[in-house]
Amino acid sequence: EMDKGFLAALQGVVDEATASFEAFDFASALKATETFFWSGYTDSYVELVKARARAEDDPQGRASAVAALRLGLEVLLRLFAPFLPYISETVWSWAFAEERGEASIHAAAWPSAALFEGTGSPQRPGSFDAAAQCLGAINRSKTADNVGVARGITSMTLAGPAALLADLEPVRGDVWAAAKVGEFELVPDDALTDFEVRAIVFEPKPEPKPKA
After folding, report:
1. Are 45 and 171 in contact (CB under 8 A)?
2. Strands, sheet with 153-160, edge to edge from the N-terminal-most edge strand
3. Strand, helix or coil at 194?
4. pTM of the predicted model, to two decimals?
5. In whole angstroms, what is the distance from residue 167 CA to residue 65 CA?
């Protein structure tokens, strides 16, 4: 579900950038691509599936995550190519030139719906956005408590509007793995518009290793 949600969001960015290019609004095409690259891909999706992409005990889930990560990078490179011609060409040569049979990204086709064929649709259209919002809320709570984002969570109470909690449900496993959440309680609260961490207990801080 996480991978399908991410790719659906990415396809929306392709549609937006394509419409902007067709209207000769190049600044909007770049803004849509750049915003999603940072907030949707690197800060959210990569962090959310990092554990699953390395999991040895879930080959199917691992393969799905790696495939979506690669497709995400390929599509974003194609979107960035008009603005970052040299960097996109270099990264393309590392990963996709031989695979796609196009030595240059600038000879490759603009991303289209064909690249997303067979990826499927998410159960809930808002699942990826809910996952990103949830991870952001948890990380903000860690920052407020001067705790590193890598610190595990022993227990947590998370509140949010009922619809947002419903969007979170099918992707909660990836969010909990990324944030290292143990016990948890989910509290529906339609007075909220986003997730709110109401109580959180962190795992003990690791003891420093003795100097040799």
Report:
1. no
2. 181-188, 153-160, 196-202
3. coil
4. 0.90
5. 19
